[in-house]
Amino acid sequence: MARSRLPRSRPLRVTLRATLRATAGLTLVAALATACATSSSAPAGTAAGTSGTIPELSPDQKVSIVFESYNLTSTGTWKPVIEGLLADFHTAHPNITVKGQPPQGVTGTSTDYVSSVKNQILAGNPPDVAQITFNALRFAAGSLGAQPFDTLVGRDAVQANFGGDHPFAPTARTLGDVDGRTYAVPYVFSTPILWFNRTLFARAGLDPANPPKTWAEVRTAALAIRERTGTDGIVVDCLTKAAGDWCFQSLVRSAGGRVLSADGSRLSFADAPAVEAVSMAADLVRSGVMPNLDQQQAFKAFSSGQLGMILETSALQGQFMTGAKANGWELDATSEPSFGSKPVVPTNSGSGLAVFSRDPAKQRAAWELIKFLTSDHAYTQISSRIGYLPLRTGLVDDPNGLQGWAKANPLIRPNLDQLTRLQPWESFPGDNYLQIGDAMMTAVEGAVFSGKDPASTLADAQKQAATLMPAR
């Protein structure tokens, strides 16, 4: 397979551009504050209140809302599922019309979906409810004016939505919280899964029933695949700016560290555990078992049977299953590998649903939509047809839910197991959260794919990124 060698690094230094970015962040805060101030007032209430402030809709009250979702950007397995759920919602709520739209102005491989919401807020026309990635959670709550559900509908209603016949997994319930208030209802996400090609494992003389459990074992298996089949061994899709930092955070946590101190006051992605994680990945590249592919190239290589393993989100399950069937190989999955005897600490990818409307009727309609999109029916569709985790985990034991599908598709099991040990994808504080993450991941790319020294490269990046942290 031809390998594409892409430029992976650029020097990290304080430049005029970085200064302008920081200045632009301050300007944005002021502009958004003005936009919020000129909007209709948010409902009054307290985070600890048990009753909300937005009225119920009467049966004949017609309301139209806009739902922005990055799952609507895909023409593959994602988009048809979400469009089908919106149609089901309208059948159940004929008085509520939902216009679904993908993020506006987001092109290429960018995953900065919250910039679409930001730009629409500045234009005075935000979506009423939007799917926001968890790395943007603090920014959405602090600067974009996401409405706290504890105020809108009351804490009891929020907690009741997490309950029901099949309650939310305990580790998922607080992922959308900031300072004890729920600003986003957790919606779709995964944990890092090691997908592997059982057919290549067998050809390489490996036991597909005993996949690698540690990164040292991954390296050994990848070498065997490379030497005995001529295909590439492994892609760890946690190491580039395009991939984002959710999965890299899990690598660092599993090595015994964090990218941000527990109190959020200090960056720590240059500490020894992060250096260990990056050094492990760099060694895979030096050993010749991990090619330098972008995400789409890696997905294509694995789907076509030209790559032995890939660490990725479960949201690619549908795509990988289709590729395996079309190209005559057998797909399997196992848990994220460990660093020796250290426990694996899975983090989550994905998103929550947040309300940005200031109109009480639209806020109520948005809440009804959120309840529907996080219901038993929705997760039955989302999990079985896309591959995201069913946050209502009891569905996999319900014969009227996902039991039959789970038995026929045991690939979901590693993800469910890791959900019980989940730690949150942390959002960097302040309005420069994206720039901080970009600085970190650019350094990771340089150390892994360009042969730069991991310790000094991460240390330099952390020093520069620290200037973007908010004052305390």
Description:
This protein has 472 residues and is α/β, with parallel strands linked by helices. The chain has helices spanning 16-38, 78-92, 114-122, 137-142, 149-152, 155-162, 198-203, 215-229, 246-254, 272-286, 295-303, 317-327, 360-373, 376-385, 403-408, 413-419, 433-449, 454-466; strands spanning 63-68, 96-101, 129-133, 177-178, 181-182, 185-188, 193-197, 232-236, 307-312, 331-335, 351-355. The protein has a five-stranded mixed β-sheet. It has a four-stranded mixed β-sheet with strand order 8-9-7-10. A two-stranded antiparallel sheet has the order 4-5. Helix 11 (295-303) crosses helix 12. The longest helix is centred in the first third of the chain and has 23 residues, at 16-38. 51% of the residues are buried. Residues 1-49 have low confidence and may be disordered.
Reconstruct the topology from this structure.
Layout: H1 16-38, E1 63-68, H2 78-92, E2 96-101, H3 114-122, E3 129-133, H4 137-142, H5 149-152, H6 155-162, E4 177-178, E5 181-182, E6 185-188, E7 193-197, H7 198-203, H8 215-229, E8 232-236, H9 246-254, H10 272-286, H11 295-303, E9 307-312, H12 317-327, E10 331-335, E11 351-355, H13 360-373, H14 376-385, H15 403-408, H16 413-419, H17 433-449, H18 454-466
Parallel strand pairs: 1-2, 1-3, 8-9
Antiparallel strand pairs: 3-11, 4-5, 6-11, 7-9, 7-10
